Structures are given as structure tokens and as C-alpha cells.
Fold these 2 entries.
Entry 1:
Amino acid sequence: MIDPYLPEHGDPSYHVEHYDLELDYRVVAGRLSGRAKITAVANTALTRFTLDLGVFKVSRVLVNGKPARFTHRAHKLIVQARIPAGRQFTVEVRYVGNPEPIRTRHWGELGWDHLEDGVLVASQPVGAPSWFPCNDHPRDKATYRISVTTASPYQVVANGDLVDGRVSASTTTWVYLQLEPMASYLATVQIGRYEFLERADDNVPLRAALPARLTEGYAHDFGRQTDMMIAFERMFGPYPFSAYTVVVTDDDLDIPVEAQGLSIFGANHVDGRRGAEHLVAHELAHQWFGNSVTIAGWRHIWLNEGLATYAEWLWSQASGGRSADELARTARLKLAKLPQDLVLADPGVQRIFDDRVYQRGALAMHALRLRLGDAEFFTLLREWTSKNKYGTVTTDDFKTLAQQHSSRPLDDLFAAWLHQARLPELP
Ligand SMILES: [Zn+2]
């Protein structure tokens, strides 16, 4: 099904199992040569299919190893090929160009972006085609192998585990394997002159890649991540990936961004005063809510942002700060002064990142918690993350599961918080 919020993205006629990306990137020239080999399965009998791909020159497309006819315009690569329904096939795309972010009407520039001295990729929701051909919809999750070759002074971080590294005369190749299914918007490459840090004594390895000048501030500002991980595993269930990496860029960033298995912060988020610790909690929580459990369509965004924002409040309380209830009541007072014209379960594409989605989403979770009681509420969250691990979900899925944790009907609560614009009172 085409996403009504972003109908020009993705192709529901097939699904991808695996992306194998071989990228060669020249930082100074800003030049990317890529070879993407995609393993997919046809959902229906195909005579053609599309991939989302930005401003590159495509030199060759092979389907099952044989040259295929294709056209490439308006960020769509249309490939002619006859594939029977249910059949697995491979498509290989060779492309070259100077990647640039995708310009969007509502969210500015997304995807592959240049730093002062390196690269940052932050794609949510539609930036992935800025660096590789993909079936760009969060419902179509796949495994990835990402190989990046670049000049040796630079370090590269991508999703998954670093499985291979080869140093030649002047370049280094970094190979990452992401074996847990991942949405295209969460795929990332980070390139910079970074130091690598790792805390090996943790249950989940906590890594960092950051400029040397920030290591001291980082040790303080991100120093409570071990405790945060323990608290979140207790509340949300086991951490879903093999490790967690924080990348801090040498540049300042407006907001941090999540990717699968990692988060990207700006130098400004290391202030030596833990001034951004709520964001540290927010981004870590996205590993459960958004990355492992992924929304099946963009209208369900409150499930990601509401739970990640609620995690900020839960962490505040768990770390001895203001209680989640206090923070919820303050947030409600603030929201009550803003226009009440947003329906949480269907905010409209231009408002998926409206702060009211975040705040009201967190409030809806708090209202549900007050109704269910702590024991049932956190059991529900853990069941949500285990039942939907590496899968995709909708608002209805959440309502159905929540109802199983309540002896009384929850229809009134969900109607008021999710489907009406007027802001309800907290219980
Ligand atoms: Zn978020």
C-alpha cells in the first residue's frame, strides 16, 4: 500500500530482503561512487518496478545479473523487468555523483550532508535516496552490508557491527553489517576525524565516536548512559541491538537524530553541564521505539515520538529529577495554551514533527499509565517491544495490545487522546 502521507516514496509491489552497498567517497571533492546490490522479492507479477534515488548518474542496472532497461528522473529509478509473483530477484545499480541532501517542503534538507570536515547522514523521513537506491518506506525493512572507502585520516561509522577494515596506501575501507532488519530512513554513514571510545564492562557495549577535543565533556555529559540503559531495559525490555554508538560531530546541530544502533549529536550537545541529557534519553529510547519497533506509515509517528519523549520524563524521575507526573502536568499546561487543532493519530504530513505530537504523545502514554497502573503499563511496554521486535506497527496495533492489559474498555481514553483535537484533562 502506498503511504498517503508520502505517496511518491516507496514501491509496494516488491519488498527488499538485503542491501549490499559498496561506496567510495572522496571527502574533499564530495564525490560518491556507489554500487548497490539489492536482493528483493516480488509481491505481485512485475513488468517494472521503481527505486528511490536522488541526483546521481546511473551507469548500469542489472536484474539477476543481466543488463536491464531503466529511466531515472525526479528521484525515481524505473527498471523494466519481468519477475513472477513471489520470486526472489537481485538488482544491481551503479551510480556516481556529488550527493546532496533531498530538499523537502516541510522539513528542510534531509539525508547525506556535508560537515565542515566530513559527512553526516540524517534521513528521517525521506532522505535515504540522497545516498543509495532504495524502496524508501519504513514498512520495508531489510538487512544491510555497508562498505565505505574513504581517505585514511577519516573514520567511518555506519549501522551494525564493524566486520572488516582494510587499509591501503591512502584509503581505508570500513565494512559494517546490520543483521537486524532496518528501515531505509535509519540507515546512516558518518564520516569525520573521530576518536573511538568504548565501555567494555557494560552489558550492552556503549561506544562513542567524537572529536578528541570533546572527550572530557562527553565523559561527564554522557556518563550516565550505563544507568540509563539499565533503567530502560528494566522498563522497556532488552536492548534490541548488539551495541549502541553515540556520534558527536565537530559541528553544532539543531537537534540530535536517531539511526539504528546509533545516535548523532552535535558538539553543542556536549556542554559539560548535562544540559542535553533529556535528549540523550530521548535518542536512546528510539532504539526500542522507532528503530526496533518501526511505524508502518508516517501517520503513526506519535508512537515513536510520544514514547521517546515519555522516556525523557521517565529518566528524569529514575535519575532523581522531577517526576514523570510533574513533567506531564507541566507539559499539559503548556499544550493547553497552544492551538488545539492537531489529531494525534493523524496529524497530517506537514506536522509529523510538530512538537505537539511529541508532548501530547507522551501525555497520552502518561494518561494510559495512570489508567492501567504501573505494573500493567510497563508489562504492556515490554510486551509491545518483544512482540513487535524488528517489525512494523500501527496505532491500532497499540490500542489492541493495550486493551488486553485493561479489564475496562479503553475506547474513551484513546478517543480523547488520539482521535480528537481538543486536549483532554489528565486523570
Ligand atoms: Zn525523537
Note: The mean pLDDT is 97.
Entry 2:
Amino acid sequence: MPTPSMEDYIEQIYLLIENKGYARVSDIADALSVHPSSVTKMVQKLDKDEYLVYEKYRGLVLTQKGKKIGKRLVDRHDLLEQFLKIIGVKEENIYQDVEGIEHHLSWNSIDRIGDLVQFFEEDPKRSEDLKQLQLKNEAE
Ligand SMILES: [Mn+2]
């Protein structure tokens, strides 16, 4: 299993490739606010662990294993954003909060949060009820 830091890199590399078609060391460094030399180091580790292949001219290419975990990490991030949104967390807190919690939940918890998101999506009345409860709590 990748460490939290490896997960951040795989997630960003997956997103960059999805959005731009390629992931350069400088783009990864910008996305994660780290020094390019840290990226180079991590890329070497991810290559060694077979998440990606670093080719001199083609740049970074995710392996099947890297793509599979990359997609899972991006989906997990999106699900947690949806979850925080549904429970009424302020827009301005959502991204940073997800970055803070995403690496520390079991896949069991992620799946159950997925159920909860589905539960709210299936009937808008449920979100309305939650909103009413929150307004009541705020008023107290
Ligand atoms: Mn993330």
C-alpha cells in the first residue's frame, strides 16, 4: 500500500495526465507545493514500486497498477468532497478538509460514506431535514 505522501503524488499525477495528457515534474511540484527535487525523489520511488515508469523522452507514464490506484484516489477525493458538501460544510473549507482526512480513513469507512451520500441523493427531502436540524441547532 502507498503511504499518504505517495498517495498525494499518485493522485496528482493521475489528475495531471487526465487533464493535460502528461505530468511534468514542475507541474507536480506546483500542484503539491513542493520543491522539484522532492518530486524527482518520489518519482524514483514510485518507479521502483511499479506505480509508474519514468522515461527520458515520454516523461511519466502510470502503470496499470498506478492508473488503478490513481483513479481510486481521485474518486475517493471527489466522494469526500460530496460528503462534506452534503452535510453542510462551508465551500471554503471543503478542499483542505478533504486533503486532511482522505489518507486516514479505511476503505470500509469510505464505502459507508458512499452509502450515506447515496442515501441523501436518492431523496432530496433527507437533505432538507438535515438543513432544518442545522438551522434549529444554530438558533439554540
Ligand atoms: Mn486529494
Note: DSSP finds seven helices and two strands in the chain.
